[in-house]
């Protein structure tokens, strides 16, 4: 059963491609975190927020990542990180095409 | 550019298959919401939370859905809904296999 980790925090930028350029190596390192299936990087310049939505293989991996990531963000100057670990309701998510299994991107 | 909507709220159940049985029709109706690409249904019996992570085609659709859904949850007795609309950082999400495009599930 997959586990969803939801993280957000107050963040004043940089956003978009400037952020992507700065954090490419960090993103690549996240692929090696135990149990990580995927991450969507979230940001809002309007609301001054950063964050991420992650799918993990199990709760222990999600909790361990959240503790590590919170400490890392604190070192980057972000004092308060809002992190929540959720179970996924698979039956309902499947009805709504929720990407909760290993997926491949359609190449049209 | 896809938009991510993050919703959670205090919720005391039912969870899991009991919730899925109650809300199958609601989930089916969500497939007809304008601009909705997918939803992952999130829940935590431990932390007494419900919620959802959605991908939308554009910000207007995400904002309209959040307003409608917040009103609907209020009718169901949930007074405070935490909803946040995010841009997706595509370059970083693609590095981490983030499902931000139209996807198909691998059938092994």
UniProtKB/TrEMBL annotation, chains A, B:
<keyword id="KW-0560">Oxidoreductase</keyword>
<protein>
    <submittedName>
        <fullName>Monooxygenase</fullName>
    </submittedName>
</protein>
<keyword id="KW-0503">Monooxygenase</keyword>
<dbReference type="GO" id="GO:0004497">
    <property type="term" value="F:monooxygenase activity"/>
</dbReference>
<dbReference type="Pfam" id="PF08803">
    <property type="entry name" value="ydhR"/>
</dbReference>
<dbReference type="InterPro" id="IPR011008">
    <property type="entry name" value="Dimeric_a/b-barrel"/>
</dbReference>
<dbReference type="InterPro" id="IPR014910">
    <property type="entry name" value="YdhR"/>
</dbReference>
